[in-house]
Amino acid sequence: MKDSGAVLIVAAMDTKGREAAYIMECLREVDMPFVLIDAGIMGESSLPATIGREEVAQAGGMTLEGVRGLGSEGESLAVMIKGATAHALKLYQQGKIRGIIGLGGSMGSTLGTGVMRAFPIGFPKVMISTMASRDTRPFVGTKDILMLHSVCDLSGINSVTEKILRNGALAVAGMVRNSITFPAPSKPRVLISTLGTTERCMQTMKKVLEDEGKEVIVFHTVGSGGEAMEELIHEGDVETVIDLSLHELVDHFFGGDYDAGPKRGLAALQKGVATILVPGNIDFLVAGPLATAKERFPGRTYHVHNAAITTIRTKKREVEFIAERVARYCREAKGPVSVAVPLKGFSAWDVKGGIFYDHAAVDIFVGVTKRELPQGVGLHLLPFHINDAEFAEAIVKIRGAMERPGT
After folding, report:
1. The CATH homologous superfamily of the domain defined by 189-403
2. pTM, 2 dp
């Protein structure tokens, strides 16, 4: 506990005691100190923990017996995650830990990553999990958690688990040993949202902005990307947000896979950060394989992006709804905001001759924004496609004018 470079092990020691003990052995081999939090509930641990389950339960607001009597494993686990997180953050604030490792199946992964998500980006986080070959978004969330697939069940030490547990232990030890303190950002931050279908526009803007001395941070609007961008806006200093890809709004309201939740798009506006909204990629929804997409969205126009992803053309009423939503969001703006509309199409697929081209949908978006945008919001109707260099350059100029009001 006296060493400031310790690794925190988070485990349910009643079910993963042998595996956690092996991780401890691996850490000892490389002289890496560790701290153990036992968040198990029902059984007993064969090893003493630095912070025991009774202390974890109390930090979660209940006695251990009370947790055991809840009658729901989900509710019980939530209490233990709350308590384990409180203890872990206290250790972090005291400078006693510099990395976290967890292990387990669905419950252990929920526990371990539930604690890890409370820690900042850059803090080493390794989760050895039977769930790592599945959709890991519920576990990873918006944080940089390394999910290491256990391949087989974590049920004792065998010729498979000993290799993977050792690799995980040495991975977190290596990250802790070689960690450095990064200086605080010195350049003004510009955040840009995008997908591959607006990549050309983003890259053009990024180069110009970096040449101007900005730090450009790009977020992929696949659900978690938009959530992470909103989080960063709330937590850090941001000069400008160029929301080039509003696609996550479409998927949230109409059932697509790239849903970033109900607050997507509001952080910058409510915080007063200068914002440029572009209806990029609102011409499609995203679903899974083609057969799944046809079942969920029958009678539409489809584009098979790859075997796992199918995009579906949005309907005109859906485009109209998104335009109304953008106008409503702009009413909440506490800082400068502009809406820029590329009149020749919203994505690489929404181009004359393209699979999703629909000029009437563009006209609908324009009509609604002209009618509904509040006074003081700049509306820029630009005679370009979203991926034209001229459109990207126009956005940069709009951003510059927002930075220098009255020019």
Report:
1. Uncharacterised protein family UPF0261, NC domain (3.40.50.12030)
2. 0.87
